[in-house]
Amino acid sequence: MTTVPTPCAEFGGGTSGTFALVVGADGRLILPRSMPPPFNGPDAVSLAAAETAGRDVRDSTAAGTPVRILTTSVSSRIGPVYVQIFQDRTAEERTLGVLLTVLLVGGVVVVLVAAGVGVLYSRRALVPIRASLASQRRSLRRQREFAADASHELRTPLTVIRTSLDLLRRHPEAPIRQVGDALDDIGAEVENMTHLVEDLLLLARTDSGAVPLERLPVDLGDVTADAASSLVAAAAQRGIQVTAEPTPAVVYGDATRLRQLVLILVDNAIRHSPSGGQVRVSVRPDGAAVLLVVEDDGPGIREEDLPHVFERFWRGVGAPAGGSGLGLSIASWIVAGHGGDIQVSNRAPSGARFAVCIPMERGATAA
């Protein structure tokens, strides 16, 4: 007697939830005599396929329950019969459903995380690009403002020169005194224009990085004393006293530019000081740096104007005529080029105080 075969690997390999039956060649149920639920009889489609191929495996449903059906033809004493084995796939389907859900949810999470990481890294990658674009926009804006301000500053001396020349042209027989006054006006404005153009060229070159600074040991005390003394006579003509108290202190920098720095600060203090006032200049070591201080007895600077003092072409309310508004901007560039810092504040009861801090030369000590 032929034994009913056990489930094979392609059928699932297990026996839990498995049911077998034997069907005759005529489709009549031989074993068992009755079908347990949810099975209600042999699967005719599988039988037809096995009759042709001798063997058939397929997935189907029995009363809504997912099953896998193995149908195979075997020989017996009563002739060929068909063995059908049904396996309940509910647990398998449930497992596959859970796995599918996990894969879908996991896939969505992975996509979201990848998208978030991509956005984060793209933003980080765009930071230097945005910074570069912003820097270029600021540079273009500064250039436009620079050109507009320069045009405005040049207009005034050109107007004076043109007016004086027109006067001389209309009155060729004017007295010598009037001719001399007109020529003096022209000469003064030419000198102002020369200083303005030189300052403009210097700032334009600093923007392009074309102004190198020397790096040599320089006694800032000596430089300050020399620069301040050169302005004593001009200050005395306005009734202003310039006092300098420099202490020997060596910095590592450009002597020419440092002298220009002192001249700018002292000249600015003289122009803002009243007759009978005093401009005080001092230099002293301050830890690992050298401190240069210039103080005046002028009206000081309005608090709301302090942040703008070092901007190009800036002039405070009530500022005296004659300046181009570029000196303090150049001073700020010189200090920055030496790795230092410049600050401005008001003194009590009146006056302004400019403090410059420049690192000392390596190995230099205060005398």
Quick summary:
The chain has 367 residues and is an alpha+beta fold.
The top-level CATH class of the largest domain is Alpha Beta
* Average pLDDT taken over every residue: 81
Strand content: 15-25%
CATH topology of the largest domain: Heat Shock Protein 90
Arrangement of strands in the largest sheet: 2-1-5-4-3
Name the shape in a single word.
rod-shaped
CATH homologous superfamily title of the largest domain: Histidine kinase-like ATPase, C-terminal domain
Structural class by secondary-structure content? alpha+beta
CATH architecture heading of the largest domain: 2-Layer Sandwich
Order of helices and strands: EEHEEEHHEHHEEHEEHEE
How would you portray this structure in words?
The chain has 3 domains: 9-88, PAS domain (Beta-Lactamase, 2-Layer Sandwich), CATH 3.30.450.20; 90-211, Signal transduction histidine kinase, dimerisation/phosphotransfer (DHp) domain (Helix Hairpins, Orthogonal Bundle); 216-359, Heat Shock Protein 90. Residues 1-15 and 363-367 have low confidence and may be disordered. The protein is 46% helix and 23% strand. With 367 residues, it is of the alpha+beta class. α6 runs antiparallel to α7 (327-337). Strands 2-1-5-4-3 form a 5-stranded antiparallel sheet. The chain contains 7 helices and 12 strands. The longest helix has 81 residues, at 90-170.
